[in-house]
């Protein structure tokens, strides 16, 4: 392996040739050296994440948008919600789709979705 701390490129190249000598019993100082993979493993302590807690107010979000979806070979009409418009305490039944800029959450039929105080969408299967 190369030195853990390299202050110049010449030391890195010399370290490579030294390791090559140790591993293969010869060295070619005139041969070009290419770095094609670098790995790093690190362990550290980080402070606990402070999640913003929102006030929960039970509500049924409204939407005029729907889309036809298929579950288990059957057509259903799903409500379409924008994630940014959902508030803590929102509850709604599936089928539904929650859209946001970086993901889509599918709420299947026979489930209930609830937005918790940390803005997670909890999906519960109805019994």
From TrEMBL:
Pfam family, one: Hydant_A_C
InterPro entries attached to this UniProt entry: ACX-like_C, Oxoprolinase-like
Domain Acetophenone carboxylase-like C-terminal: 5-118
Biological process annotations from GO: glutathione metabolic process
Source domain of life: Bacteria
Any one GO MF annotation of this record: 5-oxoprolinase (ATP-hydrolyzing) activity
GO CC, one annotated term: cytosol
Alphabetical list of PANTHER family matching this protein: 5-OXOPROLINASE RELATED, HYPOTHETICAL 5-OXOPROLINASE (EUROFUNG)-RELATED
Protein name from the UniProt record: Acetophenone carboxylase-like C-terminal domain-containing protein
Source species of the chain: Primorskyibacter flagellatus
């Amino acid at each position: 392996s190369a030195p853990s701390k390299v202050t110049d490129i010449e030391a890195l190249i010399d370290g490579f040739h030294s390791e090559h000598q140790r591993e293969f019993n010869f060295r070619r100082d005139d041969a070009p050296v290419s770095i094609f993979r670098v790995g790093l493993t690190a362990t550290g302590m980080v402070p606990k994440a402070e999640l913003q807690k929102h006030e929960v107010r039970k509500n049924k979000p409204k939407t005029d948008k729907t889309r036809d979806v298929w579950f288990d070979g059957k057509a259903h009409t799903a409500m379409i919600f924008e994630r940014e418009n959902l508030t803590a305490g929102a509850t709604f039944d599936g089928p539904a789709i929650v859209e946001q800029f970086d993901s889509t959450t599918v709420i299947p039929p026979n489930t209930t979705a609830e937005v918790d105080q940390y803005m997670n969408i909890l999906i519960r299967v109805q019994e």
